[in-house]
Amino acid sequence: MAVTLDAIASSGGTYRGVACVDDRVTDPELRRLHEGGIRGIRFNFVKHLAASPTSTSSIGWSHASSRWDGSRSAFRRRDIITQADLLRRIDVPFIIDHMGRVKAADGLGQRPFSYCWIFTQQPAGLDQGLRLGTRIGGQRPFRDAVPFARALIGVDSQRILWGTDWPHPNITKDMPNDGELVDLFAEICPDPAMRQRILVDNPTRMYWAQ
Q1: I need a labelling partner for 71 at 20 to 30 A (CA). Which of 36, 54, 80, 145 fits?
Q2: Going from the N-terminus, what domains does the chain have, and what CATH number goes with each?
Q3: Angle at the Cα of 174 (from 172 to 180), degrees rounded to 5?
């Protein structure tokens, strides 16, 4: 975390960060992180990264609602179903990484992806987001992920963020090429106004509003 805070400090206000914390985090620590440019908390539902939270209170959402613009959640596709009730109770903006990590080969009609649709269509006051990523496709350049990204953008492009996922942690083979991923986003979203919304307006609202 010290490295992230140092990078934010050296950016002259152009960077924001997302922190990993546990349920022992204190209010003074959250204030310190906020002052350092942190604007979200990441909760890992992926079993090998951390134990899944069991309630909103046990993972500090009361802090998030008053001081933080949002949070990010790492899922595997089955977790988005098992954690659906928890997600429905969250009353702050939240982001589901990598389109729920669904498996592209299972098609647009698969149940985990339908839950991504549901959360994207919830009331605007919650302002959920789906982060378009590379972890649902097969091999580079991941064109099999394009229909999924387009489908979510078509539901509500104001709730979509995009990133290459650099430096691609936990990938040990077939390392993504970030240039290819940028080109792929242009294929996913050819409309300049919509690209501006996803690349600039949405993250500005999510991470720079406070």
Answers
A1: 145
A2: 2-207 (3.20.20.140)
A3: 130
20/22 Cα distance (integer angstroms): 7
On average, the pLDDT of the chain sits at 76
Interaxial angle between packed helices 146-155 and 111-120, expressed in degrees from 0 to 180 and rounded to the nearest 10: 30
* Per-residue pLDDT, 58: 31
pLDDT tens per residue across span 151-199: 889 888 888 888 888 888 878 778 888 899 999 999 999 999 999 999 9
CB 158 within 8 A of CB 126: no
Question: Strand, helix or coil at 101?
Answer: helix
Query: Is this model's pTM higher than 0.70 or not?
Result: yes
Q: What stretches in the chain show pLDDT beneath 50?
A: 48-51, 53-71, 73-74, 124-127
- Rounded to whole angstroms, the Cα distance separating 118 from 191 reads 24
Beta-carbon contacts of residue 104 (< 8 Å; ≥ 6 apart):
136, 137, 138, 144, 145, 148
DSSP at 182: H
Which residues are the active-site residues?
Answer: 165
CA triple 187-193-195, angle to 5 deg? 40
